[in-house]
Specification:
homodimer; nine-stranded mixed beta sheet; five-stranded antiparallel beta sheet; globular; binds N-(aminocarbonyl)-beta-alanine
């Protein structure tokens, strides 16, 4: 079994690094705060005697290659970057559990026939640099390394420059490590497992994700003197788009829609906004329905264009739904059964690195319950018993795959 | 007649001061850019031999007290602060025309029985510090000087500190100068005069203004995993409020409504907004209808509260409609008639310093056409002939009132 106390202590210690002046956890990708977290992780990987390899996109690999082990490694991983004002479990739990699994194997004198590795992928959250899951996407060959490094962030910085600044622009070529299999343990970040009282989720697929940035341009004018009929108020047009997307998602089976960021120009109290710039996050487990959401949004924006607004859209991310490797999903169910933990197959609502790595290796995910379904929020919580149970299921599956 | 060429040249020179790196005119109240504009104005006031007096709220007075003149002065004025990315006429036209009128009187050897003054009031726009028309409001006794100086701006600064920084925290007590009458010449900032081909507007009243800052608090959660039915998305609630206010204003006679500024928290692409903070600008020439708009907004926010949102509102400004002094309005009409300029009585859609000074002195305004009704926009434009005609009407009215 994994060392439960150490896993919990490390989760808390990592959760305490990279907080801002207001105490908020803001370990955004490639920031100084991210560096502090990365340094801590590397210290722990080193203590476990793992060989640390960092690739050009900043993915951190800890490799355990004991005598007698050969071939492609069994990889466990996730990410340690966070959103703004995040909880401590999202991502970190999967990385630290992967490390705990290797340490448990070492402790038990287990002699795998394949190497094992734990990976922390760069910029999974996508808050600073789009698309999300960038490090794993690059490792899977879905995006060129140089193109990814040239990404300009929401704060105007360039990822490659920032990675170099924090000392995590590695030299290995992304994808240098080809997983025999990839297993990602993660908090559910949704309400299902807790509501059902089920401690283990065997994730068999993951919904499609569509991210865009939309700019609606109208015309600035005086808030007091401009009759309603003579306005082209970009803010109102954006407000109507938000209300429309919300209604559409409520009417479309499986759909969710979120406008997480917005900005008006010139952003003055008595000036009609000349422009509204906002992001749209659409998701659906069904590709056709996701396409339908995108088409409906396009049609709504066309209607606004007909009213005199200029619209431009920028694609930030587009991932189709992914089906995970059935044999790993089955192995997760088998482990849960042996450990007498109830388990259910499920879909992931969040994007994950496993979604990218699934392009190059058999992959699957293990979920544990999230209290109240809350994530991307400091109130994110999973009970310790659930955290430990999930890590032990990861141990079983990794053992089976590397035996 | 006023010196037309000098007026136009000064308008352009002042319009070229205080531009940002992008070339935008952003002479927001009490900024470094405002100082440059103020310094230029003071230089011109000095050249005309006027006595410059600056009060504690930073209002700049240029006094002409020729021999034989006594009693309260006839005051002409407006403001020289601007919105973000402004045009060059709003405010500056009234101040520079007031100066041109005094210079024309000096030139003509006119011997007024009363002193004349030109005033540039601090922070008329209200973009950096609310409420708008702050300098004239303080001068009229509607807001305590110390309270006004303690105002914290949209950028977190304090007005009193900023005024001191730019060297315009004067020593005179606001209100030290009691106008015998106040006349403000201004561009219309709306479409009526141009549409009608009327060069002069005699402004007989000014609509009521209601400014609030509204905070809608919902709950941050993951954009991918949180089912639509379990969301409290503050951004969507804000979007619905924008659409509601727009609809309401279109249905209410005389009403306009504008949401000029907005901000989401935490403002991340894949996080449901926990809060939306935005300003609301409601106006109506009819006080009862304006109250009706406020009540309808309250009711809408109550409905959102019923859906689980927390709402807080902050009052930024509230001014009732104002009726101007009929004898000055008549004098404006008489001057226009003498000069064979067509003229119409009208309502002001914008707030103006005259609205505040009307509390302590007979006041009125002269409007000239705005091309396309565009203001608070760099495309703001008034033809030179119209600018000169308006300034000459101001000369006539000031002459009459100070004779
Ligand atoms: N797991 C997770 O929060 N990933 C971030 C990417 C996304 O789903 O928005
Ligand atoms: N004239 C003018 O633009 N005043 C600013 C105050 C306002 O009406 O919003």
């Amino acid at each position: 079994a994994i060392d439960a106390a150490r896993l919990i202590a490390r989760l808390k210690a990592l959760g305490d690094t990279g907080r801002d002046e207001a105490g908020r956890l803001c370990r955004l990708a490639a920031t100084d705060a991210d560096r502090v977290g990365r340094d801590l992780l590397c210290a722990w990987l080193g203590e476990a005697g793992l060989r640390i390899e960092i690739d050009r996109i900043g993915n951190i690999h800890g490799l355990w290659e004991p005598e007698g082990a050969s071939g492609d490694p069994v990889v466990m991983g996730s990410h340690i970057d966070t959103v703004i004002d995040a909880g401590i479990y999202d991502g970190c739990y999967g990385v630290l559990s992967g490390l705990a699994v290797i340490e448990a194997m070492q402790q038990a004198g287990f002699r795998p026939s394949r190497p094992l590795a734990v990976v922390a992928y760069t910029n999974e959250e996508g808050v600073r640099y789009a698309p999300d899951m960038m490090g794993s996407l690059v490792a899977a060959g879905g995006l060129g390394t140089d193109e990814a490094l040239a990404t300009v962030g929401s704060d105007g910085t360039t990822l490659g420059v920032e990675l170099a600044c924090i000392g995590y622009a590695g030299t290995r070529e992304p994808g240098f490590l080809r997983p025999h299999a990839y297993i990602e343990l993660h908090i559910e970040q949704g309400p299902i497992l807790e509501a059902e009282g089920t401690p283990i989720g065997a994730v068999e697929n993951l919904q499609g994700i569509s991210w865009q940035r939309i700019t609606i341009a109208g015309m600035a004018n005086h808030a007091g003197t401009t009759p309603m009929a003579m306005r082209r108020d970009a803010g109102v047009a954006a407000g109507r788009t938000l209300a429309f997307l919300d209604r559409l998602a409520r009417e479309t089976p499986g759909a969710v829609a979120t406008v997480g960021t917005i900005r008006f120009e010139p952003n003055a109290i008595n000036v009609i906004p000349s422009a509204a710039i906002f992001t749209v996050d659409l998701r659906n487990p069904d590709e056709e329905r996701l396409k339908g959401q995108e088409i409906a949004l396009d049609a709504f924006l066309k209607k606004l264009q007909g009213e005199g607004f200029e619209i431009s859209t920028e694609r930030l991310a587009r991932f189709q739904p992914v089906a995970f490797a059935p044999e790993i999903v089955t192995a997760i169910e088998a482990s849960a059964a042996e450990r007498q933990l109830s388990c259910r197959r499920m879909t992931s609502g969040a994007g994950h690195d496993a979604q990218m790595i699934a392009r190059i290796a058999p992959s699957a995910m293990i979920f544990v319950p999230s209290k109240g379904g809350i994530s991307h929020n400091p109130a994110e919580h999973t009970d310790e018993a659930d955290l430990v149970a999930g890590a032990n299921v990861l141990l079983d599956v990794a053992t089976k795959l590397s035996r």
